[in-house]
Design a protein that fits this description.
Layout (H helix, E strand, L loop, with lengths): L7 E7 L6 H14 L3 E6 L7 H5 L5 H6 L3 H20 L3 H18 L8 E2 L9 E5 L7 H8 L18 H11 L2 E7 L3
Parallel strand pairs: 1-5, 2-4, 2-5
Antiparallel strand pairs: 3-4
Helix pairs in contact: 4-5
GO molecular function: ATP binding; ATP hydrolysis activity
Protein name: AAA domain-containing protein
GO cellular component, one term: cytosol
Length: 190
Protein backbone atom coordinates (compact mmCIF):
# COMPACT_ATOMS: atom_id res chain seq x y z
CA UNK A 1 0.00 0.00 0.00
CA UNK A 2 1.27 3.42 -0.85
CA UNK A 3 0.05 6.96 -1.08
CA UNK A 4 -3.38 7.94 0.17
CA UNK A 5 -4.40 4.36 0.97
CA UNK A 6 -1.61 3.60 3.44
CA UNK A 7 -2.19 3.60 7.16
CA UNK A 8 -4.72 6.19 8.22
CA UNK A 9 -5.23 6.23 11.96
CA UNK A 10 -8.60 7.53 13.16
CA UNK A 11 -9.44 7.90 16.86
CA UNK A 12 -13.00 7.93 18.18
CA UNK A 13 -12.85 9.85 21.45
CA UNK A 14 -15.22 11.24 24.00
CA UNK A 15 -14.70 12.21 27.59
CA UNK A 16 -18.08 10.84 28.65
CA UNK A 17 -19.23 7.24 28.37
CA UNK A 18 -22.49 6.40 26.62
CA UNK A 19 -21.99 8.87 23.77
CA UNK A 20 -21.99 6.14 21.09
CA UNK A 21 -18.33 6.32 20.08
CA UNK A 22 -17.80 2.53 20.17
CA UNK A 23 -20.88 1.91 18.03
CA UNK A 24 -19.76 4.63 15.60
CA UNK A 25 -16.31 3.02 15.37
CA UNK A 26 -17.75 -0.48 14.78
CA UNK A 27 -20.10 0.81 12.07
CA UNK A 28 -17.32 2.80 10.36
CA UNK A 29 -14.98 -0.21 10.46
CA UNK A 30 -17.66 -2.47 8.97
CA UNK A 31 -18.41 0.01 6.17
CA UNK A 32 -14.69 0.40 5.34
CA UNK A 33 -14.13 -3.37 5.31
CA UNK A 34 -17.25 -3.77 3.15
CA UNK A 35 -15.66 -1.28 0.74
CA UNK A 36 -12.67 -3.58 0.26
CA UNK A 37 -10.39 -1.95 2.83
CA UNK A 38 -8.24 -3.74 5.37
CA UNK A 39 -9.14 -2.35 8.80
CA UNK A 40 -7.72 -2.79 12.31
CA UNK A 41 -9.90 -1.74 15.24
CA UNK A 42 -8.25 -1.22 18.63
CA UNK A 43 -10.12 -1.15 21.94
CA UNK A 44 -8.13 1.40 23.98
CA UNK A 45 -11.07 1.79 26.38
CA UNK A 46 -9.16 -0.21 29.01
CA UNK A 47 -11.38 0.56 31.98
CA UNK A 48 -14.60 -0.43 30.17
CA UNK A 49 -13.76 -2.45 27.03
CA UNK A 50 -16.79 -3.29 24.94
CA UNK A 51 -15.89 -3.15 21.25
CA UNK A 52 -16.06 -6.94 21.03
CA UNK A 53 -19.79 -6.73 21.84
CA UNK A 54 -20.39 -4.85 18.60
CA UNK A 55 -18.46 -7.42 16.56
CA UNK A 56 -20.13 -10.45 18.18
CA UNK A 57 -20.91 -13.13 16.90
CA UNK A 58 -18.17 -12.68 14.30
CA UNK A 59 -15.32 -13.11 16.82
CA UNK A 60 -14.16 -16.44 18.20
CA UNK A 61 -15.07 -16.60 21.91
CA UNK A 62 -12.12 -18.92 22.61
CA UNK A 63 -9.74 -16.46 20.92
CA UNK A 64 -11.18 -13.61 23.01
CA UNK A 65 -10.42 -15.61 26.18
CA UNK A 66 -6.84 -16.42 25.15
CA UNK A 67 -5.57 -13.53 23.01
CA UNK A 68 -3.48 -10.82 24.70
CA UNK A 69 -4.37 -7.22 23.96
CA UNK A 70 -3.42 -3.61 24.53
CA UNK A 71 -3.02 -4.00 28.30
CA UNK A 72 -0.57 -6.88 27.93
CA UNK A 73 1.36 -5.12 25.14
CA UNK A 74 1.72 -1.91 27.15
CA UNK A 75 2.43 -3.70 30.43
CA UNK A 76 5.11 -5.99 29.01
CA UNK A 77 6.72 -3.20 26.97
CA UNK A 78 6.72 -0.80 29.90
CA UNK A 79 8.23 -3.41 32.20
CA UNK A 80 11.00 -4.03 29.68
CA UNK A 81 11.73 -0.34 29.15
CA UNK A 82 11.90 0.41 32.88
CA UNK A 83 14.26 -2.55 33.43
CA UNK A 84 16.44 -1.45 30.50
CA UNK A 85 16.61 2.12 31.82
CA UNK A 86 17.53 0.85 35.29
CA UNK A 87 20.26 -1.34 33.81
CA UNK A 88 21.59 1.55 31.71
CA UNK A 89 21.92 3.79 34.77
CA UNK A 90 24.18 1.23 36.45
CA UNK A 91 26.57 0.71 33.53
CA UNK A 92 29.58 2.49 32.17
CA UNK A 93 28.98 3.99 28.70
CA UNK A 94 31.15 1.35 26.96
CA UNK A 95 29.17 -1.54 28.47
CA UNK A 96 25.81 0.16 27.97
CA UNK A 97 25.45 -0.19 24.19
CA UNK A 98 26.20 -3.92 23.99
CA UNK A 99 24.15 -4.80 27.07
CA UNK A 100 21.13 -2.78 25.97
CA UNK A 101 21.31 -4.30 22.53
CA UNK A 102 21.34 -7.79 24.06
CA UNK A 103 18.44 -6.87 26.36
CA UNK A 104 16.43 -5.53 23.42
CA UNK A 105 17.04 -8.76 21.47
CA UNK A 106 15.97 -10.84 24.47
CA UNK A 107 12.80 -8.80 24.92
CA UNK A 108 11.91 -9.00 21.24
CA UNK A 109 12.19 -12.78 21.24
CA UNK A 110 10.25 -13.12 24.51
CA UNK A 111 7.82 -10.25 24.07
CA UNK A 112 4.37 -10.15 22.58
CA UNK A 113 4.21 -9.68 18.82
CA UNK A 114 1.36 -7.41 17.77
CA UNK A 115 0.08 -9.86 15.17
CA UNK A 116 -0.44 -12.49 17.90
CA UNK A 117 -2.90 -10.08 19.54
CA UNK A 118 -5.15 -9.68 16.50
CA UNK A 119 -8.41 -11.53 16.02
CA UNK A 120 -9.79 -11.58 12.50
CA UNK A 121 -13.52 -10.93 12.19
CA UNK A 122 -15.16 -14.00 10.66
CA UNK A 123 -17.06 -12.43 7.77
CA UNK A 124 -16.59 -12.58 4.01
CA UNK A 125 -16.34 -8.89 3.18
CA UNK A 126 -16.72 -7.95 -0.49
CA UNK A 127 -13.77 -6.86 -2.63
CA UNK A 128 -11.23 -8.53 -0.32
CA UNK A 129 -11.99 -6.34 2.69
CA UNK A 130 -10.71 -7.52 6.06
CA UNK A 131 -11.43 -6.52 9.64
CA UNK A 132 -9.07 -7.25 12.54
CA UNK A 133 -9.71 -6.64 16.24
CA UNK A 134 -7.07 -5.79 18.86
CA UNK A 135 -8.79 -6.27 22.24
CA UNK A 136 -8.18 -4.17 25.34
CA UNK A 137 -6.81 -7.31 26.95
CA UNK A 138 -7.36 -11.01 27.39
CA UNK A 139 -11.05 -11.46 28.15
CA UNK A 140 -10.80 -13.59 31.29
CA UNK A 141 -11.07 -13.35 35.08
CA UNK A 142 -7.54 -11.93 35.32
CA UNK A 143 -8.21 -8.83 33.20
CA UNK A 144 -9.68 -6.60 35.91
CA UNK A 145 -6.92 -7.59 38.31
CA UNK A 146 -4.19 -6.88 35.73
CA UNK A 147 -5.80 -3.55 34.84
CA UNK A 148 -6.16 -2.44 38.46
CA UNK A 149 -2.60 -3.49 39.36
CA UNK A 150 -0.88 -1.76 36.45
CA UNK A 151 0.99 1.30 37.73
CA UNK A 152 0.11 3.95 35.15
CA UNK A 153 2.28 6.60 36.84
CA UNK A 154 5.39 4.40 36.75
CA UNK A 155 4.31 3.02 33.39
CA UNK A 156 4.25 4.48 29.88
CA UNK A 157 4.01 8.17 30.84
CA UNK A 158 7.12 7.92 33.05
CA UNK A 159 9.17 6.88 30.01
CA UNK A 160 8.89 10.37 28.55
CA UNK A 161 7.82 9.17 25.11
CA UNK A 162 4.09 9.85 25.15
CA UNK A 163 1.67 7.19 26.22
CA UNK A 164 3.05 4.17 24.36
CA UNK A 165 6.35 2.42 25.19
CA UNK A 166 9.01 2.51 22.47
CA UNK A 167 9.01 -1.29 21.79
CA UNK A 168 5.32 -1.05 20.79
CA UNK A 169 5.90 1.77 18.32
CA UNK A 170 7.58 -0.20 15.48
CA UNK A 171 4.83 -2.82 15.64
CA UNK A 172 2.05 -0.21 15.57
CA UNK A 173 3.78 1.66 12.74
CA UNK A 174 4.23 -1.54 10.71
CA UNK A 175 0.61 -2.52 11.23
CA UNK A 176 -0.52 0.92 10.08
CA UNK A 177 1.42 0.34 6.85
CA UNK A 178 -0.27 -3.04 6.24
CA UNK A 179 -3.88 -1.98 6.71
CA UNK A 180 -5.83 0.86 5.14
CA UNK A 181 -7.22 2.14 8.42
CA UNK A 182 -6.50 1.78 12.12
CA UNK A 183 -9.54 2.84 14.14
CA UNK A 184 -9.33 3.12 17.90
CA UNK A 185 -11.72 3.97 20.66
CA UNK A 186 -10.68 5.96 23.72
CA UNK A 187 -12.56 7.51 26.62
CA UNK A 188 -11.75 9.56 29.67
CA UNK A 189 -8.95 11.97 30.43
CA UNK A 190 -6.39 12.03 27.56
Amino acid sequence: MTGDDAGRIITFYSYKGGAGRTMALANTAWILASSGKSVLVVDWDLDAPGLDGFLHPFLSESRLRSTPGVLELVSRSTQFMLQALDMAKQMRPIERDSELSAAADAWTSGGIALNSCLIQVDWAFPAGGQLYYLPAGTKNKGYLSAFSQFDWKAGPRSLGRGSLPAPCMPQIWLMSRLVSYVLDVVSGDP
